[in-house]
Amino acid sequence: MSCTQKQLVLTHLRTRGSITTLIATKRYDCFRLSERIRELERDGHLINHTPVEKNGRRYMAYSLVDGKQARAA
User: Fold this and answer.
1) What are the start-end ranges of the H helices in 1-73?
2) How far apart are CA 11 and CA 59, in angstroms?
């Protein structure tokens, strides 16, 4: 069974700590990382959105909040 992009991104977050659009595009052919992050958040995962500026370029880095999921209300 092949993994979905959402599963690949979640596994990357759990094993590598953070992910950016560039990494997602190069490693997983995922061109809509922000949508995969929204899907994971809808599934209950708590994800940090950290703005990064490097060499005059701005981008977002995403990471799991201590690998936790939001609690059901």
Assistant:
1) 5-16, 21-28, 33-42
2) 21
- Each domain of the chain, given as residue ranges in start order, spans 5-66
Query: What's the token pair of residue 23?
Result: 């990494």
Helices (H) and strands (E) in the chain, counts: 3, 3
pLDDT digits (tens, 9 = 90+) for 6-65: 999 999 999 999 999 999 999 999 999 999 999 999 999 999 999 999 999 999 999 999
Residue 12 contacts residue 27 (beta carbons within 8 Å): yes
Predicted TM-score (pTM) of this structure: 0.83
CATH number of 5-66: 1.10.10.10
What is the distance in angstroms between the CA of the first residue and the CA of the last residue of the chain? 33
**Nearby residues of 31 by Cβ (< 8 Å), 6 or more positions away:** 24, 25
